Amino acid sequence: MCFACGKDNPVGLHIEFNCDGDTCQAEFTPTRNHVGWEDTVHGGIIYSALDDVTANVLYKQGRKAHTARCEIRYRAALRVGETISLRGWIKKEKGRLVILRGEAKRLADGVVVADCEASFMLERAAISS
């Protein structure tokens, strides 16, 4: 039932993430259900997609973690129907803290719509040896 990736969530984004090692990727095409103003996608939808592409880097590695902080920078408007490519990757780790970067690029022209730096706190049992 995850809002971003849950296939059974009727109001979710239904993003399918593909992860390899320390990187995770996906594509997302917003619909009219994701509008914030006129035909512009709501910033919270873009944030949710970036939060999940970074979270899934750890989740797909079998490490349980929670977002501690996420700073996002919006760089360009995203319109309904414009597909974005999402990418998340690990920047660094220290103890239970993992810093990840995320990026959303418009597929048609490669323009960065938004990027983020997120801190995740690993659960104690999920710390790498």
Give a short summary of the structure.
The protein is mainly beta.
CATH C-level category: Alpha Beta
Rg, Cα atoms, Å:
14 Å
Largest sheet: 6 strands, antiparallel
Strand order of the largest sheet: 1-2-6-7-8-5
Q: Would you tell me the structural class of the helices and strands?
A: mainly beta
- What order do the helices and strands follow? EEEEHEEEE
CATH superfamily heading = Hotdog Thioesterase
Task: State the low-pLDDT regions, or none.
Answer: none
How many helices in DSSP terms?
1
Give a written overview of the molecule:
The protein has one domain (18-126): Hotdog Thioesterase (Thiol Ester Dehydrase, Chain A, Roll), CATH 3.10.129. Helices cover 13% and strands 43% of the residues. It has a six-stranded antiparallel sheet with strand order 1-2-6-7-8-5, covered by helices on one side. Strands 3-4 form a two-stranded antiparallel ribbon. With 129 residues, the protein is mainly beta.
Q: What are the SSEs and their pairings?
A:
Blueprint: E1 18-20, E2 23-28, E3 35-37, E4 40-41, H1 43-59, E5 65-74, E6 84-94, E7 97-106, E8 112-122
Antiparallel strand pairs: 1-2, 2-6, 3-4, 5-8, 6-7, 7-8
Jot down its keywords:
129 residues; mainly beta; Thiol Ester Dehydrase, Chain A; 6-stranded antiparallel β-sheet; two-stranded antiparallel sheet; 1 helix
